[in-house]
Amino acid sequence: MKQGIHKSKGGLIRSFVGTENGIIDDISISGDFFLFPEEALSKIIEELKGAAAKREEIQKNIEATYKKENIQSPGTTPSDFTESIMKSLE
Amino acid sequence: MKWRVIGLETHDAYLNMAFDEAISESLREGASLPTIRFYNWEPSAVSIGYFQGIRDEVNLEVCRELGVDCIRRWTGGGAVYHDFDGEITYSVIAPANIFPKNIIESYGLICGWLVRGLVSLGIEAEFRPVNDILVKGKKISGSAQTRRRGILLQHGTLLYGLDLKTMFNVLNVSRQKITDKMIKSAHERVTCIQMHCGAGKKEVYEALVNAFTDGKDCGAGIWSRDELIRAKELAEEKYKSSGWTYLR
Question: Considering its fold, how many domains does chain B have in total?
């Protein structure tokens, strides 16, 4: 798997994404960003498993988890996570 | 509101981080006062942010050789080298509802206390969102905040001296050769108290205490027996565990 690295205003986001038939089946995200509540990162990851490995789908999926989990991440947006994931998928 | 101030103490990394969590729990239960604490790290240590991969950030082999501890924090943000001689760390643990809801504003409020401390030493410092304090455009302090179940914890480091060579050795930049150019480039981005005033570490600490407690109803405090027991338990069972350290 290729590492996708993207720097948001709030920090660096590293991601590794594995796919099968265009579907995300393995994903890890790490970095020096801030995200509250911290445990919600695992929810973002959980929700992305099984999603189509397409920019729009990924972004929508992350936005939905942000809303559901009431996530705040100063300087980092769902688009930043999407960007890091897309770089891993390149 | 009454605050407790725990004066400058020295502990290892595991107990330092465990105290922050133990106070958060105890405050939530109504058994502790909101607390401001100052501390050093012995042995020197590297702390990484909650979301970081330890192998991405830390040269574990060099840490072992130098006797530098490695710990995953409860808070996000980046990897920090906590040199025993070269910094003072603070923590603020208090009900989240006394701070602005906006995270950057709350960083600004607490970092403002630190800025006031630096200004009282004659150092012109400024808060730079999200979580840094700069002097003449260079970083002198970084902080990290978490809010869990109604409790805000913010901790941060103030650089007193700079040991860039050790810092580069223990952090993973050392996979590349540490060059004079890298050291020079870091000096252009990072600074410390010693580069701006002749105050001793004790004087700096006193300036911080004055600035952090100004306008608050504060009393010097000690750990309760329960806090000590819980902190030791968290240090052993959570912060020293490989499950936590190698979480990512």
Answer: 1
- Residue B105, domain member (yes or no): yes
- CA distance to partner chain B, nearest, from residue A45 (Å): 13
CATH of domain A3-89: 3.30.390.50
User: Tell me: the pLDDT tens digits for B124-169?
Assistant: 999 999 999 999 999 999 999 999 999 999 999 999 999 988 998 9
User: Nearest CA of chain A to the CA of B114: how many Å?
Assistant: 21
pLDDT tens for each residue of A1-34? 788 999 999 999 999 999 999 999 999 999 999 9
Radius of gyration of chain A, Cα coordinates, nearest whole angstrom? 12
Residues 52-111 of B with CB under 8 A from A: 52-53, 56, 74-79, 103-104, 107
Question: Exposed, middle or buried, B166 (CB in 10 Å: 0-12/13-18/19+)?
Answer: middle
Asked whether residue B136 is domain-assigned, the answer is: yes
Q: Which domain holds residue B193?
A: 43-216
> Would an 8 Å CB–CB cutoff place A41 in contact with chain B?
yes
Q: Read off the CATH number of the domain in which B205 is found.
A: 3.30.930.10
C-alpha span between B162 and B39 (Å, rounded): 17
